[in-house]
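User: Can you help me understand a structure? I only have the sequence.
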Amino acid sequence: MKNERGLNVKLKGKVAIVTGASRGIGKAIAIDMAKEGAAVVVAARTEKEQEKLPGTIYSTAKEIEALGGKALPVKCNVGDEQSIQEMVDRTLKEFGTVDILVNNAAIGYYVAFQETPIRHIDLLFRINVRGPLLCTHAVLPKMIEQKRGSIVNITSSAAEDVFSRIIQKNEERKPVGVLYGATKAALNRFTRGLAIEVSKYNIAVNAVAPSAPTYSEGLVMWNPNVDLTLFRDPHRYMTKAVIFLAAQDSQGVTGGVFYDEELCWQHNLLEVRK
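Assistant: Let's start by predicting it. Here is the structure, written out as tokens:
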């Protein structure tokens, strides 16, 4: 179903916060949610273009508005409690509610554990674990009050798979990303437990991971010699899976940790081309 502007309306009337939305998977999620009718809070730290990493909260918001959607760019550092609260306060001031939270913002650090400085250990857990927890903590009061909401955590196969994905031709899989994987495993456990806690308030909590390497500017920056033909477009499976989960409440799908491709096939989310 589409509205008069040609946009889909699966999330019509919903307000969604997407963290880490200036580029990569977060940007793709924000744009596709807006296409589905949601007003999107484009949250990230980046306000100015960077030499190595293109994309800002304003450029994402402009793309959404050019499609006829509604966007509110908000600078937010998920490592800072005050910044998170200000993001939620601005959302409520602008839209009066928050229906969906997508915890996408994260950082990677793919160095052997023993070679990792303590400050980077702290940073990984502050951004990848504490950040989503605090964002969730900040939106829950409104979701509980209105007795509806959906929280979608973006996770990774690294939570369970100790070996790297193949991102270059003729590359061998190797154990890597111990700390990154540990942060995503923590997020998965949080997802399952919180879903039970808040089910009585009609709030769904789920997590979804890309089932294959998915393009993002950050990953390419870390691996400048990657073979881009091995990467998926995030719009292919990931955004469809996130939108499906964002539309849930506790009477539907909740408490799950999924892979995007599998979820899309299970729930018939793909357009079959004849």
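Now, to help you interpret it: The radius of gyration is 18 Å. Residues 15-266 form a domain with the Rossmann fold fold (CATH 3.40.50.720). Let me know which part you'd like to focus on.
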